[in-house]
Please model this.
Amino acid sequence: MTTPHTSVIRILLADDHALVRRGVRLILEREPDLEVVAEAGDGAEAIELARTHEVDLAVMDIAMPRLTGLQATRELLALKPGVRVLMLTMHDNEQYFFQALKAGAGGYVLKSVADRDLVAACRAAMRDEPFLYPGAVTALIRNYLDRVRNGEEPPERVLTPREEEVLKLVAEGHSSKEIAEMLFISIKTVHRHRENLLHKLGLRDRLELTRYAIRAGLIEA
Model:
């Protein structure tokens, strides 16, 4: 039975070593829902290929000529915000890991265990779930505890009560006009609250606001 095309994850693979690309391609293409549609030898080529190919997921090495994987990730996400990115690297390194998260990568996979982790990481990325190797989880916890000890713990309430009200109503599908009428504020004020919400939470659109509202317990899934 063939897999419908719409369920196949189209992958851009970027690594400056042809042997590594071949090995990674073999791992990925054993799976019926994963297909490598383009291969790049460096970050700049990856961006060029992203312009000409329909891609769902990019698997990037960190250390590459011309543009590194980190630089290419930032450019790729500016070009195609909907694409997910995984970092595939030999570096079990906290600094690289945090830089990858900052660049917008949704997962960090070590080449040494790619045969075990990469397929699961690809699928997690497409579900918008982060994929972290065990050492990365430890690094995140340690980083959080360091910030707490240094008095840098983020406040429990990120949003104002009014912003929470607007977020809940946006997530429930109400229009700006309806929200304005329900909260006795102007449509312009609703738009300003919405822009503030997107900026504060680092989100892009109504769908992401809705997901956040569900996670925050403001509405039921």
Q: What stands out?
A: Residues 1-5 have pLDDT under 50 and may be disordered. The domain at 161-214 is CATH 1.10.10.10 (Arc Repressor Mutant, subunit A). The chain has two domains: 5-146, 161-214.
